[in-house]
Amino acid sequence: MPLKKTIDFSYEVFENISQLSSEEAELLRKAEEILLKAYAPYSRFRVGAAIRLTDGSVVTGNNQENIAYPSGLCAERVALFHLMSQRPDAIIESIAIAANPLDFELSHIISPCGSCRQALLEYELRMERPIQVILGSSKGEIIKVPSVRSLLPLSFEEAKLKKS
Ligand code: THU
Fold it and tell me: How many domains does the chain have?
């Protein structure tokens, strides 16, 4: 019989934005603000990301689409790559992600795609510090995930590239 193993993680669920700390609430609001400037004419699905650094500064981004669909980029990576290109020594504390499609009301919380999880994990491992992930809306439920690693179990890591 093979050995069975389980990977699980805990996350927090908040009924509404008033239950977040003022910094967390502000970060989520900034993600919602920046999604309004998303360039998403093809999917009409606007996403915003706001990254908070340990020094309290905030960097935002939104999804940027392209007529050649795969050439577009998610909000999370737009914000993340911009930040890390400008401030390679930045230490990230948390990221808030919000979505607001143009044609319908979201009925559930969206969470980052696999590629964004992978990109975020790179910096989480490099910084040796968990990045909190805040998902949801100022008008509804919010969840807080303690780290990117918990969203990407059994991930591909640098150590695995090295000869042992
Ligand atoms: N998108 C993001 O920006 N972030 C996510 O976490 C998921 C998806 C974007 C990509 C595309 O522009 C649109 O949402 C629809 O997939």
Answer: 1
